[in-house]
Amino acid sequence: SLAVLQALEDGLKKADADPSVKAVMICGENGKFSAGADIRGFSSPKRHGGALGPIVSLIESCEKPVVAAIEGVALGGGLEVALGCHYRIAHAKARMGLPEVTIGLLPGAEGTQRLPRLIGVPAALDMITTGKHIPATEALKLGLVDEIVEENTIEAAIRLANKV
Q1: How are beta strands 95-97 and 73-75 bridged, if at all?
Q2: Who's near 163: CB < 8 A, 6+ residues apart?
Q3: Does 3 or 26 have the greater pLDDT score?
Q4: pTM higher than 0.90, yes or no?
Q5: Is the CATH number 3.90.226.10 carried by domain 2-162?
């Protein structure tokens, strides 16, 4: 939603400018990272702001380490947010993917560029063109996530952020 995008942008800019902040952790709410954009918003007239691509680029260019704590699902724009992060920790039951293609859309926030850089072209093409969701264990093998945890993902992400 526009509110989430604005909160991400404001929070990142504030954290980057605050010398007391050493790292940033991005998580979802209620055990889910993000299922991506609400497709109902695609048919509404374009409003000023609210584009995911610039937010993901802002995450990627943050001077401080940014860690994604992935619980539940990171799909579509949610996975693209995670791809912009410097590190990704996933709960063992998490699933990730770019399912937009199943409704005739391509990932629009540079996921088609970031994913191949991270996991290689063959694996990325499979994910992008099929829209399949992969489990955390496969994401770890591919290099999509840096670590899998059975415990509290947020606490693990904070530990990693403090370590780096």
Answers
A1: parallel
A2: none
A3: 26
A4: yes
A5: yes
Spot the catalytic one: 100, 110, 138, 150.
100
pLDDT digits (tens, 9 = 90+) for 52-99: 899 999 999 999 999 999 999 999 999 999 999 999 999 999 999 999
Cα–Cα distance measured from residue 39 to residue 26, given in angstroms and rounded to the nearest whole number = 22
User: How confident is the model over 123-134, as a mean pLDDT?
Assistant: 95
Copy the structure tokens of residue 35.
């299922």
Alpha-carbon distances of 86 from 47, 95, 110, rounded to whole Å: 29, 19, 15
Q: Are 133 and 121 spatial neighbours (Cβ–Cβ below 8 Å)?
A: no
Sheet harboring 147-149: ordered strands across? 24-27, 66-70, 87-91, 147-149
> Which whole number is the average pLDDT over 157-162?
92
> Is residue 155 annotated as part of the catalytic site, yes or no?
no
Give the SS3 label for residue 41.
Answer: helix
* Amino acid (1-letter code) at residue 45: P
Question: Which of 60, 71, 80, 150 is flagged as catalytic?
Answer: 80
Average pLDDT over residues 106-111: 87
Q: Which residues contact 32 (CB under 8 A, 6 or more apart)?
A: 71, 72, 73
For the chain, domain boundaries:
2-162
Pairing type for strands 133-135 and 95-97 reads: antiparallel
